[in-house]
Predict the structure.
Amino acid sequence: MSDNVSAELISVLALGDHDHGATTVATALRVRLAERSIANVVLVDTWAYDDVVRGLAAGEYRAEIALLVVSAAIGTTPRSALLLRMLRARRFRRVVVAVTFTDVVDDDRLVGITLHEIRVDTARYGFPDAPLVIVKHARTGAGGVDSARSLDRCIAALSTVVNPSGESGGPG
């Protein structure tokens, strides 16, 4: 992915457990992609966790990359692990993890523990090289994702998992 329009269209499936911020991240990423004139990325937001699980089980979602959103304030959950298992079962090969709400966790050690748990889970379910990106949220809740730099890091992480050979990262 570059700041120019590419010939190859890349689809990204954004998903996460309830209240982890997937919709906020997806919305902010769409805006940031537009600001940077990156027009070759289609970002698909998923709304309700149960619907996402059913959709993944049925093979309804097709994307090159999955963007799993995990809250540092809540940590990894059995639902997050289930999403990783479902992505593996649906033969997704590329996952990026966006870690949200690090600014509401007062103890950096807790953030470190959450990051470690995420790395353990991504490796356990077949995504040992999944990039982890901290995406900043506003403390007020009114502003949503507040840092263009953190969004740019997320875009960069998404670009690192795109296979230059054009091989699909998700189910074909």
User: Anything to note?
Assistant: The domain at 10-160 is CATH 3.40.50.300 (Rossmann fold). Residues 64 and 169 are 4 Å apart (CA to CA). The chain has one domain: 10-160. Residues 1-6, 138-145, 164-172 have pLDDT under 50 and may be disordered.
